[in-house]
Amino acid sequence: MDGQRREVNDFIIPKSQNANETATVNPIMGGGDSSTHSGRQFYIRYDIETGSYRIRDLGRGYGAFGKLQHAIEIRDSFLINIGESYVVSYLVENDEMSGADFGGSEQKLKLKIFPPCNLDKPDVITCQNDKQELIIGRSPNCDIRIDDQLISKMQSSIRYESRRWILEDGKDGKESTNGTWYYLNQ
């Protein structure tokens, strides 16, 4: 172990203790018998040198997601969960704006939105890198409208600032009801 101190704590979700207990089914994530589970889903590692924690998904189940607590930079292939929908981001070079005059290349943001009822045909939205803020939600007034009763009227916002795309939960400091979640293994 290279002379480093290592401490491991394990918590495994226990199987049902009551044999007469009925199985529970999660309507969003699918079936499941409360007496079985697929083992470890993720692990948390503390780095003594940096004083920070890292979470790693172990590739079982639906993945480990964290609730967005503050604004976060959107990266390429970023996976976001909003209600029952999933959104995947792609950063696309904007050829028209690239070059020495602009000090490098700007990026467009392409979003693929996978609603729960139509996974084969995602909605594709390309966001220009202008200064406007884009609002995601179920309200007809939103720039990106997702028809999902589990999300807020104004669920989250995306803006382009300092040559980066930023995602934030809610609008004007008010959080969404069920939160915006992002895949932790990114």
What topology emerges from the helices and strands here?
Blueprint: E1 42-47, E2 52-57, E3 65-67, E4 72-73, E5 79-82, E6 85-93, E7 107-114, E8 123-127, E9 134-137, E10 144-145, E11 156-161, E12 164-169, E13 181-183
Parallel strand pairs: 9-10
Antiparallel strand pairs: 1-2, 3-13, 4-12, 5-6, 5-13, 6-7, 7-8, 9-11, 11-12
Protein name: FHA domain-containing protein
Domain FHA: 134-181
Organism: Strombidium inclinatum
Structure description:
Pfam families: FHA (PF00498). Residues 134-181 form the FHA domain. This is FHA domain-containing protein. It comes from Strombidium inclinatum. InterPro entries: FHA_dom, SMAD_FHA_dom_sf. With 186 residues, the protein is mainly β. It has 2 domains: 1-63, no CATH class; 68-183, Tumour Suppressor Smad4 (Sandwich), CATH 2.60.200. Helices cover 0% and strands 34% of the residues. It is built from no helices and 13 strands. It has strands at 42-47, 52-57, 65-67, 72-73, 79-82, 85-93, 107-114, 123-127, 134-137, 144-145, 156-161, 164-169, 181-183. The strands form 3 sheets. A 6-stranded antiparallel β-sheet has the order 3-13-5-6-7-8, with no helix packed on it. Strands 4-12-11-9-10 form a 5-stranded mixed β-sheet, with no helix packed on it. It has a two-stranded antiparallel sheet with strand order 1-2. A hairpin with a 4-residue loop joins strand 1 and strand 2 (52-57). It is globular. It starts with 41 loop residues before the first strand and ends with a strand. Residues 19-35 and 97-104 have low confidence and may be disordered.
